[in-house]
Design goal:
The protein is of the alpha+beta class. Helices cover 21% and strands 38% of the residues.
């Protein structure tokens, strides 16, 4: 066991000192892939992943994490939008399996006073095919399938690293999002998000655009005149997270970096292959995807867990949240009526009215839950597609 004592300041406008008696120990697991035998780097990533999970479970909102080198924390500050701090960290287990490393850490955390009940549940997120805004830029390397490959890898990382999302993926055909986004047609985007959510039983819809994959003009090895030039290649990517309930934009963020394109300029590259993802450029994109997973978790962790009502009978409802989303027998939900209104410009807006009913889960499947009213009263005015919500 490695004990790693540090006082990590959480930056919230004040530097908080961990001199309080109500600290709590949190355990979390982190995972990372071992590429080309780089065990130490993989351990670093796995510990970062585990510590972030521990902080999120404690109620913190992580914006960045301090560097971890050889399993030891080397910096004394962590940038976090939360009132809490970490006093010490222990690495209590490390497991190697094939090309993966898993670590378990235990962190002594002084948590936020307020924690959201929705932390217990995973939110269903649908990932849609990305869009190459400048398709001609993909000609070098023939990486036209990068729009699908990036989303596939993001989905894999969400499955292995995310604490608060249950992701699914839709790649068979592109959506109209980019065309609608370019024309600022927010009303149609709302309708698209709600329609996709209804079709796939998802709470959130994730759209994305690849803005730039062009090359820099200055080669990286210009002093080695006997070698073929290697040039930095840009990767500029924007994520858009929409609510599937009302079609509103919940969050968006842009990710940018540059990596050396260390392939022959005439070579066609398989963007779904190991060679690409272990290259300098592929590793750069992979690191950005890790950041995206953390940002998605941060932005949905305390959002209400909303399930649509699929069936109503007497005092019983069936909702589209189940064991896969973290629902347990005995969990309680409030019921909300869904309605909509149109403004003077003809735009539609979703609205909800809180009903007096609360229900308790009595039966579970992987994707659905059956719940009955707590006071056994009949659900007279609850309808299909109304909501069951855990705030």
């Amino acid at each position: 066991m490695r004990n790693i004592p540090r006082t990590l300041a959480l930056v919230t406008g004040l530097i908080l000192t961990p001199l309080t008696c109500n600290a709590q120990w949190y355990e979390a697991q982190g995972h990372a892939r071992i590429d080309q035998g780089t065990v130490e780097i993989a351990r670093t990533k796995a510990m970062e992943n585990a510590l972030k999970k521990a902080l999120l479970v404690a109620g913190a909102s992580v914006s960045s994490i301090q560097q971890v080198v050889n399993g030891l924390l080397t910096q004394d500050q962590i940038s976090i939008r939360a009132s809490g701090s970490v006093n010490s960290i222990e690495l209590i287990d490390e497991l190697h399996s094939d090309n993966m490393i898993s670590v378990t850490v235990r962190a002594d955390i002084f948590p936020q006073e307020k924690k959201c009940l929705a932390l217990d549940f995973k939110k269903s997120v649908l990932l849609t095919k990305s869009h190459l805004n400048h398709r001609e830029q993909a000609s070098r390397g023939s990486i036209y399938q990068l729009d699908s490959a990036v989303i596939t890898h993001l989905n894999q990382k969400l499955h292995s690293q995310s604490t608060y999302s249950a992701s699914k993926i839709l790649l068979k055909s592109a959506t109209e999002f980019s065309r609608l986004n370019a024309s600022f047609n927010e009303e149609k985007i709302k309708q698209l998000a709600v329609s996709l959510a209804d079709t796939t039983d998802s709470q959130y819809i994730l759209f994305s655009e690849i803005n730039d994959i062009s090359f820099e003009q200055q080669r990286t090895n210009s002093w080695k005149i006997w070698q073929q030039g290697t040039y930095p290649r840009n990767f500029d990517f924007t994520l858009y997270l929409y609510s599937g309930i009302n079609g509103e934009l919940v969050w968006q963020n842009r990710y940018q970096n540059t990596g050396v394109w260390d392939f022959n300029k005439r070579e066609s590259i398989d963007v779904n292959g190991t060679m690409f993802w272990q290259s300098n450029y592929g590793n750069m994109i992979s690191a950005l995807l890790d950041n995206m997973v953390n940002d998605i978790d941060e932005n949905i962790m305390c959002e209400p867990s909303e399930g649509k009502i699929l069936h109503v009978k007497g005092n019983q409802v069936v909702i589209n949240l189940g064991r896969h989303h973290g629902v347990k027998i005995g969990d309680e939900f409030s019921l909300l009526h869904m309605s909509s209104f149109k403004n003077e410009n003809g735009n539609h807006y979703a609205s909800t009215n809180i009903s007096p009913f609360k229900v308790k889960v009595v039966k579970l499947t992987k994707q659905n839950a059956t719940a009955i009213t707590i006071d056994h009263s009949l659900l007279g005015n609850i309808q299909l597609n109304d909501l069951a919500v855990r705030f």
